[in-house]
Design a protein that fits this description.
The chain is an alpha+beta fold and about 450 residues long. The chain contains 9 helices and 13 strands. A hairpin with a 6-residue loop joins strand 11 and strand 12. The two termini are about 45 Å apart. One of its GO terms (molecular function) is fatty acyl-CoA hydrolase activity.
Length: about 450
């Protein structure tokens, strides 16, 4: 039987997404299942530490791993691996553990998707450990690798379908490999229903995190794995195309220039003679809608490379954006989608984090945010950029329209619009069935940005 992706067209989305189905699109509705379980997520963290020979506790000067460099294999020595080799599941036990539930819920009873993403990032690292197999590594020698999150391609959530008192099952597998990088497809389920899906890119580094390390090539073992692999190749192609035209440096298209002109005339008048912009009814200025916070990460937030764990950075950024979305909408908001989380610099364990969430685009009941994470070096207090997240939230009602006040903000607006369009497209691509885009979100509206 030829396995292929099932894509169902979605004509429209109602504001609450109430009829969204409980499944994400997989290859002909089938899923990869190895039967392997890594225990709880606490067990996963312990396995990773044991695998790399990490010392217990925190040491300002970590134990040197230079001695492991001689064990780094050559790529030609690494045998091919299948997706089933890396596939595993791990559990978050919420049903009978009240203290664990407390860590994972908001005050309104919804599960914290920032926490879920943090755990998925950790599981993705463990999946990389399971994929890497250097046959010449002597028994008892720690794995001479370090794994670093490069980016999150995207993540999709069905937040309201989660229950705070039902165990959560996380699973995933390697879905694509390069020379020294791996794509991980990760899933979140409750009661067997697939409620969230995320795509991570992880870089394999040597034992001292000073250079790239080769990874085992991925070879699909059957038709199902081949179907997942073809989907991963499509994503890799899209990522390569995006790298060639960075969104931050992308020149507006003719259509986007028209959108900018229409916004200008709405606030400055047709002739543009007004010295001060006038805010149209039910609108807000972008310059007034950003919220920021400073965090001091601690050693408990580090990874085995002694830098701040990528999952902690993602969780902190999601929670900052959540607060901003709630304040903007005047009600509780829920996260729907994350796209293009790119880590440009690792954050040393002695640093501080500055997070700033900007409302950059709105449409109907949706709020699109850009959250920027900078780090402040704890030694010389210089500031540098770490990563940027693009997040889509929904509210229970229509939100005020956000409008830029400068050319720079207009470019952010257009970028936010592109990411929102990616969210709408992903519903068609990632989900089976679904509600339809809000009646007000028509093709003409997307063109106009209204």
């Amino acid at each position: 039987m030829h396995l292929r992706r099932r894509i169902i067209a979605i004509p429209s989305l109602n504001p609450q997404l109430q009829v969204l189905r409980h499944r994400f699109v997989e290859c002909d509705g089938e899923q990869l299942e190895s039967g392997h379980c890594s225990g709880t997520m606490a067990d996963v963290g312990k396995k990773i530490r044991e695998h790399v020979g990490a010392e217990g506790g925190y040491h300002a000067i970590p134990k040197s791993r230079e001695g492991l460099l001689k064990f780094q294999p050559k790529r030609s020595e690494l045998p091919k691996r299948s997706m089933m080799d890396s596939h595993t599941t791990a559990n978050i036990l919420l049903e009978n553990d009240a203290l664990m539930r407390e860590r994972f819920v908001y005050g309104v009873g919804l599960l914290r998707m920032g926490r879920i993403m943090e755990e998925l990032d950790l599981l993705s690292v463990w999946i990389c450990h399971r994929h890497i197999f250097p046959p010449k590594l002597p028994e008892g020698v720690p794995l001479p690798y370090t794994f670093v999150t490069l980016l999150v391609d995207h993540a999709h959530f069905l937040v309201e379908k989660f229950s705070a008192d039902v165990d959560v099952s996380l699973s995933g597998h390697v879905s694509w490999t390069g020379n020294s990088s791996m794509e991980i497809t990760a899933y979140v389920r409750q009661n067997g229903l697939l409620l969230a899906k995320a795509i991570f890119m992880i870089a394999a580094r040597d034992a001292t995190n000073s250079g790239p390390a080769p990874v085992n090539p991925l070879m699909p073992a059957n038709e199902l794995e081949d179907c997942f692999y073809r989907e991963a190749l499509e994503r890799h192609k899209r990522r390569a195309e995006k790298l060639s035209r960075l969104d931050s440096k992308r020149q507006p298209t003719k259509e986007e220039e028209q959108i900018m002109y229409e916004m200008f005339t709405r606030t400055k008048g047709i002739e543009g003679l007004s010295q001060t912009a006038t805010l149209p009814p039910d609108c807000r200025w972008m310059s007034e809608w950003h919220r920021s916070t400073l965090l001091h990460p601690f050693p408990q937030n580090r990874n085995e490379a002694n830098t701040i764990f990528g999952g902690f950075i993602i969780r902190s950024a999601i929670e900052t954006s959540y607060i901003t979305a709630c304040l903007y909408g005047g009600d509780y908001s829920v996260i729907r989608f994350i796209s293009d989380i790119t880590f440009t610099h690792q954050i040393p364990v002695h640093s501080y984090m500055k997070l700033r969430a900007y409302v950059v685009y709105t449409q109907d009941n949706y709020v699109q945010l850009m959250t920027v994470v900078n780090a402040i070096d704890g030694n010389n207090f210089s500031e540098f950029h770490s990563n940027t997240l693009h997040l889509t939230y929904s509210c229970n009602h229509k939100v005020p329209e956000i409008l830029p006040t400068s050319y720079h903000e207009a470019l952010w607006y257009l970028s936010g619009r592109r990411h929102f369009q990616r969210f709408l497209a992903s519903i068609n691509r990632d989900m089976e069935g679904g509600s339809s885009p809000p009646e007000k979100i028509k093709d003409d509206d997307l063109r106009k940005g209204i």
